[in-house]
Amino acid sequence: MAAKDDLGRAGEERAARHLEASGYRILDRNWRTHTGEIDIVATRRDELVVVEVKTRRSEWFGHPFAAVQARKRDRLWRLAAAWIVAHPDAARGRRLRLDLIGVTGPEPSTAILEHLEDLR
Prior knowledge:
By secondary structure, the protein is of the alpha+beta class. The protein is built from 3 helices and 5 strands; from the N terminus they run αβββααββ. It has helices at 2-21, 70-86, 88-91; strands at 25-33, 36-44, 47-56, 95-104, 112-116. The protein has a 5-stranded mixed sheet with strand order 1-2-3-4-5, with helices on both faces. The longest helix is centred in the first third of the chain and has 20 residues, at 2-21.
């Protein structure tokens, strides 16, 4: 399991660097409650963005985005609401958005990164 955890952490680090290079400001990483975890919380302009990162060595078991089904999206929206309750000042006046970042390749630092914005 450690290798999988290391891969996931490396993918999240790559995603955070991508977001910062794209003008996002990272507010939180790996925020946890008893119901789950948000990988990254960021802002850009007037938006609060909750980002789920999925990292895969290959698409052998499917595209990373395929791992985020309706049930997972619903949980992410609930976690986003909980984050807002815990951080009301950071969220005030911002539109909430859910994004997905998929990192696919044997080495996250050189893997293909795809950013799907405003998942509904």
